[in-house]
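Order emerges. As here.
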Amino acid sequence: MKKWYVVHTYSGYEKKVKAALENRIETLGMADKIFKVEIPTEQVVNKDDGKLVEKNLFPGYILVQMEFDESSWYVVRNTDGVTGFVGSRHKPTPLTRDEYYRMVGHSKKTEPVVVTSFEVGETVRIKQGPFADYNARIQEVNADKGTLRCTVTLFGRETPVEFEFKDVELVYS
């Protein structure tokens, strides 16, 4: 019976391991025992620069759907970059249906997740507008809108102002 197994790889090499495993499945004629290889990922938009990137949900792990027997275990285990299966040394533990859907659930989202490097309490330099070249301290980050609520010190008083991410840059001290 085909089940999903978690395979441990070197972190950062998941795509290479997936490609190598898929190549071995084809060349060794194992498509009747090893069915799918997946890397659980999610789409992430970096609001700082607007780039859409794919982020691994579980770095160092891939999922393999297969019928577990000695030959399929051998093919997966001896693929370059694979360090082992999750479970006992000679008897990997298959995922339950719920575990599988929890692991890949984020992969199936159509809306990308928004991330930013801005954090409350950090200092930013304002790049444009009436406050250009002033420094401000972040009070609130709204990643969905792409805005920051900051305080700018003017004439000795702190004034709250809202900026778009593109209008500021982090000040590294």
Notes: The CA atoms of residues 149 and 162 lie 4 Å apart. The first helix runs from residue 14 to 27. The helical segments are 14-27, 70-77, 97-104.
